[in-house]
Amino acid sequence: xxLHPAVVGAAEEVLREVLRFTGPAxxxxxxxxxxxxxxxxxxxxxxxxxxxxxxxxxxAYASFAESGYGPAMRRLALLGLADAAGVDNLGSLxxxxxxxxxxxxxxxxxxxxxxxxANLPQWLFDKLVARDGEAATLELADALNRxxxxxxxxxxxxxxxxxxxxxLAKAPIVCEPTPYAPLGxxxxxxxxLQNLPLFKEGAIEVQDEGSQLLTHIxxxxxxxxxxxxxxxxxGKTLGIGAAMRNTGRLYAFDVSEKRLSKLxxxxxxxxxxxxxxxxxxxxxxxxxxxxxxxxxxxxxxAPCSGLGTLRRNPDMKWRQTPExxxxxxxxxxxxxxxxxxxxxxxxxxxxxxxxLLDEENEAVAQQFLATHEGFTLVPMKDVLLEQKIAxxxxxxLKLSPHLHHTDGxxxxxxxxxx
Length: 418
Ligand SMILES: C[S@@+](CC[C@H](N)C(=O)[O-])C[C@H]1O[C@@H](n2cnc3c(N)ncnc32)[C@H](O)[C@@H]1O
Hints:
Layout: H1 6-18, H2 25-35, H3 41-56, H4 58-64, H5 72-85, H6 95-105, H7 114-118, H8 122-132, H9 134-144, E1 150-154, H10 161-170, E2 175-177, E3 184-187, H11 197-200, E4 204-206, H12 209-218, E5 225-228, H13 235-243, E6 249-254, H14 257-270, E7 275-279, H15 286-289, E8 295-301, H16 316-319, H17 322-340, E9 343-353, H18 362-371, E10 375-378, H19 380-386, E11 397-399, H20 401-404, E12 409-416
Parallel strand pairs: 5-6, 5-8, 6-7, 8-9
Antiparallel strand pairs: 1-3, 1-4, 2-3, 9-12, 10-12, 11-12
Helix pairs in contact: 1-3, 1-5, 3-5, 8-9, 12-13
Bound molecules: S-adenosylmethionine.
The site of S-adenosylmethionine has 19 residues, from helix 13 and strand 6.
Active site: 354 (nucleophile)
Family: Belongs to the class I-like SAM-binding methyltransferase superfamily. RsmB/NOP family.
Binding site for S-adenosyl-L-methionine: 254, 301
């Protein structure tokens, strides 16, 4: 069915704003939809997916848009919409525009120069090629430039995974268990979940399989004292609280009141009563210091470049710069040092990011070990064995979309010496 002709102008307007990179693309898109309530759901979907397609393929599309007709922003919008909805579903195109889009569709992407195929900013492309080589970088870029599947986590307090899969099948929603995360479900298409009874009663949450694995790596147990240092809206907090079987005490720290406030309704749905959200001013806040040496496990899901989540947030690659990575790096080191003071002897500290860059990952872990004699590295392969997770890793967890079909994640586990 053809889309309303207004989608092209709307996509153009949204793109103009998004490509200024003054804020996250999802926030700009949601605001536009709030301000334009008459747009239908198919149109909204095509506009959002079309804008995301431009962000994913920006370099290649900019080169394609050197040919074509009409204003440059319209050409980009048409390329994105054609990718998201198909040329035949776009109404109101001129004959030349349709013919142009059909010509572009014939281009063999493998014949493009490597930088256009990768669609990464030059600094990032160069960094990855220097580390992994060109072939592996292109494979990684290809996986990062595709939309992510929809993964769910089952709330183990309330349901078993196989029962949720059977219940979803009745909807009917086609899904399967995730290969590595024991409570994960991968959904084939992207159905609306918000109105499902399973969602309303807190049996499921949307969470990438990689993110779920971090919760298991922390290994929190019944009755323990645990801190989720950078809890945000609580993606991982909810999984940790359930792993603790709603016992013990789980502090959810964050410096963002807005993000922590999004945790509240999720907590209410989850049935957890062991979680204590705590707004802190910074990582050295007195509220943190009060818990020094009292905690069994701390997760530092550090603020990072987010370059491992480009499947969901393709704008991040254009918004990050080498300078922003340096700033984030200083924050990561400082948060990790403060979090380390919380641990009891024998306690475990997990440092995690959704970055693909060594300077946010191994380099931070190695610097931590070099400056914290009281801690040792627990090799990731041992942690995964303890948790019965069938993933081949050495010292660290390194998940990558082209190898594991998850977002890109890194994790290191440290233990405070007894
Ligand atoms: C990667 S996000 C966390 C995502 C969250 N753990 C989840 O699973 O949904 C990083 C978080 O760190 C928070 N943050 C930034 N600086 C911080 C600091 N100094 N101390 C604690 N949290 C901080 C940010 O507000 C953000 O919510």
